[in-house]
Write a structure and sequence with these properties.
This protein has 135 residues and is an alpha/beta fold. The chain has one domain: Rossmann fold, CATH 3.40.50. It has four helices and five strands; from the N terminus they run ββαβαβαβα. The chain has a five-stranded mixed sheet, sandwiched between helices. α2 packs across α3. The longest helix is centred in the first third of the chain and has 18 residues. The chain is globular and about 30 Å long. The C terminus is likely disordered.
């Protein structure tokens, strides 16, 4: 299930000087499952190493949340409040798409990732801001 990931955009909020919150969205699955192996590989092998270059960000995935209370309420708040969300579209997980939809409603930065072997789930175009940065 491991493979190369493709990303769709890298927001400018990564240059912010203050400590920010980065929330990870994607399929997680039960302990020991292939889905969990994928989720842990992505978090530990790709996202965390990249984000060490941005120490102003605290990275968190929902299953690592130790706060008491309803996880769905906490997750929705995290999706809304996070400065950055990194979303894994791999494995076509409906919960992840729901969470991505909530994030898109905020208009805040989100990075989409997907296993390259799956091909792009959707065609995305760079935003006006990204286009200006590229060129």
């Amino acid at each position: 299930m491991h493979g190369h990931l493709i990303g769709f955009g890298w927001p400018t909020c990564l240059t912010s000087p203050q400590r920010s919150f980065c929330f990870i969205v994607g399929p997680i699955g039960p302990e020991g499952s292939e889905i969990r192996v994928h989720a842990d590989w992505l978090l530990k092998g790709i996202i965390r190493p990249v984000m060490t270059g941005y120490p102003e960000f605290q990275v968190k995935r929902a299953d690592h949340d130790a706060r008491p209370g309803l996880i769905d309420v906490q997750m929705i708040n995290d999706l809304i409040d996070a400065e950055l969300v990194i979303a894994d579209l791999s494995l076509l997980n409906p919960n992840a798409f729901y969470e991505i939809g909530i994030r898109h409603m905020t208009g805040k930065p989100i990075i989409h990732m997907q296993l390259a072997i799956e091909g792009a789930f959707c065609k995305t175009r760079p935003s006006v801001r990204e286009t200006a940065m590229m060129g």
